[in-house]
Each structure stands twice: as structure tokens, then as C-alpha cells.
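Reopening this ticket.

The earlier resolution said the output was attached, but the attachment link was broken on my side. Pasting everything inline this time so it's all in one place.
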Amino acid sequence: MLESSTERDTHEYIARRPQNLKSCERFKNQFLRLTKNTKVTCISGSIISDRVVDEFGKIHSSWVFDKYKTKLGCASYFEGECSLRYQLRHGCKVGKRKTVKLK
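Inline output:
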């Protein structure tokens, strides 16, 4: 489980399913390598519960982990999630951009 906190908010990111110890160690080592000396980590996931307030007024949100990204790289639970090239080769369609003129 990954967790990020501020004085008022806590976000927890939970794995989709149990992992064996070897897989967990690989994930931990990769996470430490990609977050070393970084100030910002972008974590993506699907919401489980949003903005549950505890008895101390702290807000908790729970997510199912998908991927994370830092300036050093990206890692994902799903194959190819960190690569637009992979996604395009495997059926992802990108729509045409519409140009909007501002008045």
C-alpha cells in the first residue's frame, strides 16, 4: 500500500490483489529507484471511497493503484500503461483535436 498525507488529507493506494513476496520486493525496489531524490510523484488509480472524514476531522480517500510516475520514469500495474506508443500499437484510438477560436 502507498500512502500520501497532508495535515488534513490522507490518500491510500491499495494493490489490486495479493502479491507473492518476490513480486512485492521487485515493486518496492523499483519504487525506491524511481522516487529517489524526487520531490513529486504522480500516482494514478481508481477511487474506492472518497472523502471519508474520521473522528479527528481528517479526510481519507482510498484508491486502487494503477501506476505512478516521477521525473525518473513510470511504473504500472498493467502492461503498456506508461507507453503511448504501446497503447497505440495495441488498439488505443486517439481522437482528432478540434481547434476552438477564442473571441
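Reporter confirms the inline version is readable. The chain is about 20% helix and 35% strand. Residues 41 and 70 are 5 Å apart (CA to CA).
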